[in-house]
Prior knowledge:
The structure is a homodimer. By secondary structure, chain A is an all-alpha fold. Chain A has helices at about 1-10, 20-30, 35-50, 55-75, 90-95, 100-115, 125-135, 140-150, 160-185, 190-215, 220, 235-240, 240-260, 265-275; strands at about 85, 90. Chain A has a two-stranded antiparallel sheet. In chain A, helix 4 runs antiparallel to helix 6 (about 100-115) and helix 4 (about 55-75) packs antiparallel against helix 9.
Amino acid sequence: xxxxxxxxxxxxxxxxxxxxxxxxxxxxxxxxxxxxxxxxxxxxxxxxxxxxxxxxxxxxxxxxxxxxxxxxxxxxxxxxxxxxxxxxxxxxxxxxxxxxxxxxxxxxxxxxxxxxxxxxxxxxxxxxxxxxxxxxxxxxxxxxxxxxxxxxxxxxxxxxxxxxxxxxxxxxxxxxxxxxxxxxxxxxxxxxxxxxxxxxxxxxxxxxxxxxxxxxxxxxxxxxxxxxxxxxxxxxxxxxxxxxxxxxxxxxxxxxxxxxxxxxxxxxxxxxxxxxxxxxxxxxxx
Amino acid sequence: xxxxxxxxxxxxxxxxxxxxxxxxxxxxxxxxxxxxxxxxxxxxxxxxxxxxxxxxxxxxxxxxxxxxxxxxxxxxxxxxxxxxxxxxxxxxxxxxxxxxxxxxxxxxxxxxxxxxxxxxxxxxxxxxxxxxxxxxxxxxxxxxxxxxxxxxxxxxxxxxxxxxxxxxxxxxxxxxxxxxxxxxxxxxxxxxxxxxxxxxxxxxxxxxxxxxxxxxxxxxxxxxxxxxxxxxxxxxxxxxxxxxxxxxxxxxxxxxxxxxxxxxxxxxxxxxxxxxxxxxxxxxxx
Lengths: 286, 286
């Protein structure tokens, strides 16, 4: 992923104007690092089936990261999580103001589609990727999940509803990342099974986040932990012990599925996913 | 435009979930009406050159209206204009809360690209339209304009900088609407001149808004007027009399250009534009 990180830094959004801080604010959260988990998934699938397309696929990986980054910026706003810290740095509304955080988020959301519209693929592939990112990152995907998360704060949900919440809020974009990789290499017959795998992976990821939120310090996480208050989380509903059991069970299921992938896909995704699948067992590994 | 209005109402975004107000909030500002000026421009160009494509072009017109509507919702937020009223109705953050207004805006932004990715055009045309909407509605277009507008509140700008501000904030999306019409009918040789015409039209539109903001009542405008405070406006910089002179001069220039359009384009756009070009002369016509 060093390769992707360098690509991202070379392709940061730029904007020349008399506004003294707009361009810097646009770039701030992108440059602040992060796990680049979604790009890694997309690029892993591409590398498994057509390594020659890896360079071009970085544009699609970047688009997903742009959309993900905008969502973090808006989730951190005072009206939502009111988080002072993200990726180890002050959040944009703290560094600048709320206006900047709202507008930078808006800009990165739109920019993700501009990047895909100009990525080095056929028009057919570009349209497929744009549709996939919009559907999973939009009003019946990530945004619905965030709306549910905010609305049902202080209104406890059952376990099925919280799974629906996080399927939308977290899992769909992760699943879309894998599927977009399959679209890029023209393996659309694999797209659906990768998507289903990604949904489960995203749910595991969220259960792990909820676990780490109560077991990890802010310094380890690079963001404020124990900050979820009365939000619905797997830990508040199931308790810590049951959440860890649920995570263990899902981790085992995903490990088995990973083993059943064909050789190339297993070779690419296994090093990445084995680490993530088990991250709730080692709270110092973020 | 009755046709477009009916189309929009039949194609409102839907979202079935346990969230009791999310779907209603998504639809609220779209159903509240509005001039549908950008859709009318796009559809006018299409009708001039290929009326058979008018039905399909409504999807593109809708995408532009979605992006425009998201921008109004975010501009009205407490951190920005803090407007209580829009399109004659309470704004979303008043009706629901800030979270809802932020998320509905985010959702409509993303949805505009989903609509274009599924519009009944060739993949080539879809990609061109998505690129155009994203470039003009994004970080070096509408969002930059809004960022400048907010940042330079209380910091007076010169006339050239305020033109740059409104070229980005207002004119580029209007220009893009005309250009997208040309792209749909495959008249890309007209796209650039229509774009330049649209930039001037957008500037006129903004000068007129600034004029109407001080000459019109809130009831007439369907939004809170005299609410721009210390924002840079043509009226605060040039004064009302000079602003009206500037609007008159630009209106004359645009009328001349409109006369020079070919017969079909003139026939389609003239009824629409003649009314808008002169709207600052008749403050009861919104």
